[in-house]
Structures are given as C-alpha cells and as structure tokens.
Design brief:
heterodimer; A: mainly alpha; ABC transporter involved in vitamin B12 uptake, BtuC; 2 domains; 17 helices; B: Rossmann fold; 9 helices
C-alpha cells in the first residue's frame, strides 16, 4: 500500500516534500490507493449510466433504492472477506439468509404471540426476533465452522452441504408456504420512507461521523508522536479530514434530498396531528435508510474486528501462512470457527433486511446470495490465495455490483443481461487486479 | 568442562517419532546446558529438524520424555514450548508474509490496550527497539514482510525468538539464506546469547559454522544419534565421517575412508 517506511525519515518530524511527483504526494496521505481506485470505478459506472439515461440516473431516489438493494450483500460480504482471507469459502450464506428470514416471519406471525405470548403491541418484538435470528445464524455458523475447523472437512464441501440442506430446511420450517405479516417496527429495518433516520437525525449522524473522523486522525497522530514515529505532513492530515467530512456531509445531503411521498406524509400528518397542511403539502426529508445505517455500522464493527482485534490479526496471519500461525501458538481452529459464527450473525442481519422489505418470507429468499457475496468480496480485492482483502473493499464491491444491476435494469436490460454484465465485470475486475499486483511486485 | 555436575537445561530422553511406519527419530537422548551451543548435524532426512520440532511443540513425540530444569514437562503444542521459554527459529522462518514486522514479531503474543484492542504503536515501538539492536539498518516496519529481503526476514524471525526472554533457543539453519555480512552478524548474536546464559541447539549443514560456535556436536544418522562429542576432541573430518557413515571416528575402517575419498 505505502512504502513510506522505506523512505528516509526523521522520527517525530514531518517528511520533507522534496520530491513532488503526484505519486509521492498520494503516498504521503497514506490513503489506500486500491480502495480509492475502486471508488473511482464506482463513480465511473454511476456517471456512465447517468449519461446513458440522459441525466436521470443519479437522482437521490435511485441512489437510495440501489443502496438498499445492495445492503444485504454488502453486509454478508464483510464476513466473506474474513472467510476467504483465512483460505476458506462459505457457500451456505444464501440458504442461511432464507432460513433466518423464514424464522423471523414465523416468529412474528406464530411463535412470539402464540408460544411466548408476545403480541403485536409489545414494542420490542423486533429486537427479540432479531436476537433469536442472530442466535440461529450464529448456531448454524458454529456448526459448520466446527465441522470445518475441528473435523477437517473442506469448507467448500461443508458449506455446499449447508447450501443444499439449509435451503431444504426452509421448506420444512413453513411447510412449503410463504409467510407474511412482519411487525411494523421490524419492517423499518427494510428502509423505505419511514424506515429511515429522517432529516434532522441524518444531519446529527453526519456531524457525529465528521467528529469521529477528526478524532481518529488526531488520535492516530498523537499516538505516533508519542512513540516518535514518522507522521503524515500536516497538509495531508487536513486533506484527509476535509475529504472525509465532505464525503460524509455530502452523503447526508444526498439522503436528505429524498422526501416522503406526498400521500404518506399527508396521512401521517393527520394521524399524528401535525396541524394544518402547509403551502405545497408536507415536505418530510427521508434521510439515511436504516439498511444503509446497518451497512455502515457493520462495516465499522467488522473493520475494527479485522484490524484492531487479535481475532482479525489471526485470521490474516493464518491466511498468509497457516503453518506460521500454528507455530506461533495461535488457536487456529477456534479462529476459523469464529469466522463462520461471524458469518452466521451477518446472514441473520441481512435476512432481517430482506424479510422486512418483503413483509414476510418466501421459500426462495436469499437464493444465489452466495454468488453475489463472493463476487462482491472478490471485486473488492479479496484474494483466494489467502491473507489479502479488506472490509471496505468488499462493501464498495457490493455497491459496484448493485449499481451495475440497478443501472442496467434502469436502462431496460432484463436480468439475464444483467448477469452477463456482472460476470464480465467480475472477471475484468479480478484480471485488472491480478495484472496490477504482478506489476507491483 | 564441568557441565556434568549441573542440571541440564533440557534433557531429551528416548525420543521417538514415526511418520506412518517410518522412524524419523528413534530413541534419541540429548542434553543441553545453560550457556552452551550444541550443534546438531547430519545428512538430509537424518531427523534433526523433526527432533527439534518435538521440543518446540510443532510435532508430538511418539515416545520418550522431555525435561526442563530437571522437571518432566509435557509439550504438545507451540504454546506449551513458549511457556517453558523455548523459542524456535524455523528454517522456513514461519513468518506470515502478508503482515508487517511488528505483527510477526508479536504473533500470538500481541500487546493490547486495556480494552483488549491491539496496541500497534506499542508493538511497533518494541520492534524498532529490538531490531535497532539486531540490525540497525532495518527500517521496514510497515510493509508486509514478503517485500523484505531474505536477510531482513531472517532478522524478523530471530528478533521474534530472542525478544521474549528465551532460555532455550532452537536455530534451524539460521544462516542458510544469508550473505556473508549477515552471517557474521548472526554468529556474533549466537555468541552474545550464549554469554547471556541461553542454551542453543544449532542445526546447520555448515560444519565450520558448527565447529566455530558450538561446544558439543551431536551427529544424527537415519533418525538416531551416532554420538555427541566434545568439539575439542575431534576434527571436522571426523564429524564429516560420522555424518556420511553413521559411525564414530574410532569405528571407521580404512575401506570407509576410501569410500569417502571416492565420493569427494
């Protein structure tokens, strides 16, 4: 990523900006060039569709719909990174999403009210259901992880079996029926006008985000100063802070450019007694949809797990050299098992979004998720040789796939055509990456 | 030498290791005292590395026992070995190529903050300190170790072994991948560690290295110890004969000598 440490530098002092080639300037900011490149690629895709559609594509409504559609894939892809980095694979995610989504639907319609006596009026039904779903996901993950790590059956086989058998269990769960009738609070997890933060809270969240970016930069600089390590030049720090804040605030402004549909706003206004209708009707800002908030939250937690915790360090070390990890005394089996537990939890979160959006569960919810999730992780730079991959890359990868699918369908391309395009992009992205890495090394 | 009166740091007793039906190590007994270097030599497949893997916890012994400070210990995995301050520099280096030097140095023993998060700054600071002592030219603290030179990577592996108060050090071909300057550095380090009272098993193909650095030399042949000899009492030619023929110097016949001459 950066070869700054090799450059001659005085501890505790800023490096001189003697060489002013653009490459060096970029290196001094220590930004992830790969991730930056992918964001540029994502922007190019969006702009291309915008041009092709005569300037109507990049509109807040489209962007929000597109992001919500990609949210589930993005969430699971963050876990797939850890699984692939540690030289395994998980093909069972789609079936697990289906199973947990069906569980949510049945919990809402039958189990919670009939068995536990928790009726629709209970305010935290959504949280109880979510907790149970996460438990189910984690349990399936732990079972598969145990078979892979402790019994030693290859992950491809175990999760292929999971793909088949868990999908079969979905049928038994509901006796082959689709189930609908999700709690209204739970439905908010799926986004939509009401399943969003709203204008004010979106700004609040954005400002918290900006403060967090600045705090992280300041803290890291202070930390490096404390140990007398080389630090970034001040202009680079400022550039990063400004760019980060502009991005966060821009995202918030974009989300807030969405408004509730007039009919809904009027209905809720009457229900909740907002008073007389203003000139031109109610204008309610939608703000960030909850699924996007979930993606951001999951992305942050997973990045923290991957880079700041022993677990993540061991996952990457194992992926880089399994023998070395073993000889270093790492409990490699438990590490692998945990990656699958994380995967199960993420599937349960994605299943909640899917069930909430559908207001129920069908038998084929989550079908072929595994393929999109793996594609997202790989487009995001995760390598099957192990040890390489980032959480942020996988999230961007998921949104590249979602943009492509949504953009093509916006242009009237039917889903087989979208699949053709997705396949070509997958191969192109990995081919490009392989070429770059080979040239780099 | 008066080592015989002291308790050995490590006693390997009747160690055997079998892979399937093949005896890689057969009934080997070996001692190591504090502050000495025992050279372990032998041809390829003689069982040197396998024997040392037993001590470092990388491979379980099929039979036999290990004593540290005279007390019998059970070593079934690398964590056990590290608990007894047994550190190993593997011939393969056993580095995770995709992470940086501090991450490798502290792999499995990370420094953490009070909340249990990795304290990368502290680990980098420690790494800078230990590398500053071992190899002052080392500057690559942030790159994945795969981008480092062979000598630098070796440096990281050595730093990892000596940083955690090793009392028993196993070095498997520590200079095989190094240039002359770096080899000299490693030799100096071995002498220095020996003076600090660390016991070192040194596996090497280089007879002169072994003669230069060790007090005693153990020769292995087809999984067994041919003999453990005091360096002062033999010549490199004697040791070479033991390695090739699997016989002690006084057992070597004229026809054996002729055979060696032929091979040369």
């Amino acid at each position: 990523m950066t070869n700054l440490a090799e450059a001659p530098s005085q501890p505790g002092q800023q490096r001189s900006g003697a060489g002013t080639s653009i490459r060096r300037l970029i290196a001094q900011t220590e930004i992830d060039v790969r991730l930056f490149g992918m964001l540029v690629a994502l922007a190019v895709i969006l702009l291309t569709f915008n041009v092709l559609s005569g300037g109507t594509f990049i509109r807040p409504t489209n962007m929000v719909t597109l992001s919500v559609q990609g949210a589930g894939i993005a969430i699971i892809a963050t876990g797939m990174v850890l699984v692939i980095v540690s030289r395994n694979i998980d093909l069972s995610v789609g079936s697990l999403v289906g199973f947990v989504a069906m569980s949510y639907a049945l919990l809402m319609t039958d189990l919670l009210p009939d068995v536990l006596g928790i009726g629709p009026d209970f305010p935290f039904r959504w949280a109880i259901a979510l907790a149970i779903g996460i438990g189910i996901g984690a349990a399936f993950g732990a079972l598969q992880g145990f078979i892979i790590a402790y019994i030693g059956v290859p992950s491809f086989i175990v999760t292929l079996g999971g793909l088949l058998s868990i999908r079969g269990l979905v049928w038994y769960l509901s006796n082959g029926a689709a189930v609908s009738g999700i709690d209204r609070n739970f439905q908010l997890l799926g986004g939509g006008a009401q399943g969003s933060l709203g204008g004010t809270l979106t700004w609040v969240a954005a400002i918290i985000g900006c403060l967090a970016i600045i705090a992280l930069l300041v803290n890291s600089r202070r930390q490096r100063r404390r140990f007398d390590f080389p630090v970034r030049p001040m202009w680079a720090e400022l550039l990063l802070a400004v760019a980060g804040c502009v991005a966060v605030l821009g995202l918030a402004a974009f989300a807030n450019a969405n408004h509730w549909p007039q009919g809904l706003a009027n209905r809720i206004a009457i229900e909740q007694n907002w008073g007389p209708t203003p000139e031109g009707g109610w204008q309610v800002q939608t703000g960030l949809p909850f699924p996007i908030l979930l993606v951001i939250g999951v992305g942050l937690v997973m990045t923290w797990l991957a880079t700041r915790r022993r677990f993540g360090r061991y996952v990457y070390a194992y992926g880089g050299n399994p023998d070395a990890a073993e000889l270093a005394g790492i409990n490699t089996r438990m590490t692998i098992l945990k990656t699958y537990v994380v995967m199960g939890i993420l599937c349960a979160i994605a299943a909640a979004i899917a069930a909430a959006r559908l207001n129920g569960a069908t038998l084929d919810i989550g079908v072929s998720y595994e393929l999109y999730v793996i594609a997202a992780a790989v487009i995001g730079g995760t390598s099957f040789t192990g040890g390489i991959g980032t959480i942020s890359g996988a999230i961007v990868g998921a949104f590249v796939m979602a943009s492509l699918a949504y953009g093509l369908s916006y242009m009237g391309v039917i889903s087989p055509g979208q699949n053709v395009a997705a396949g070509i992009v997958l191969i192109t992205a990995v081919g490009f990456d392989t070429y770059n890495r080979r040239r780099g090394s | 030498m008066t080592v015989a009166e002291r308790t050995p740091l490590v006693e390997l007793r009747h160690i055997s290791v079998a892979f399937g039906g093949v005896h890689a190590v057969r009934d080997v007994s070996l001692d190591l005292y504090a502050g000495e270097v025992v050279g372990l030599v032998g041809g390829n497949g003689a069982g040197k590395t396998t024997l040392m893997r037993v001590l470092s916890g990388a491979h379980p012994a099929g039979a036999g026992e290990v004593r540290v400070d005279g007390k019998r210990v059970t070593i079934t995995n690398p964590r056990d070995a590290k608990r007894y301050n047994i550190e190993t520099i593997y011939q393969t280096l056993a580095l995770a190529e995709n992470v940086d030097a501090p991450a490798n140095l502290f792999l499995g023993r990370e420094l953490t903050t009070r909340l249990g998060s990795l304290d990368d700054s502290a680990m980098e600071a420690e790494t800078r300190k230990v590398m500053g002592r071992l190899n002052p030219n080392f500057k690559s603290f942030k790159q994945p170790v795969q981008s480092l030179s062979g000598g630098q990577r070796q440096g990281v592996a050595i730093a990892r072994a000596v940083h955690f108060n090793a009392r028993i050090l196993i070095m498997d071909e520590p200079t095989a991948a190094l240039g002359p300057a770096e080899t000299a550095q490693v030799r100096n380090l071995i002498r220095q560690l020996k003076d600090e009272g660390i016991g070192i098993f040194l596996i090497s193909h280089d007879i002169h290295d072994v003669f230069d650095l060790s007090e005693r030399i153990s020769v292995m042949y087809h999984g067994e110890i041919v003999g453990t000899i005091d360096k002062e009492t033999v010549t490199p030619e004697d040791v070479l004969g033991m390695i090739i023929l699997g016989k002690k110097p006084d057992e070597v016949t004229d026809s054996d000598r002729a055979a060696i001459e032929l091979r040369r």
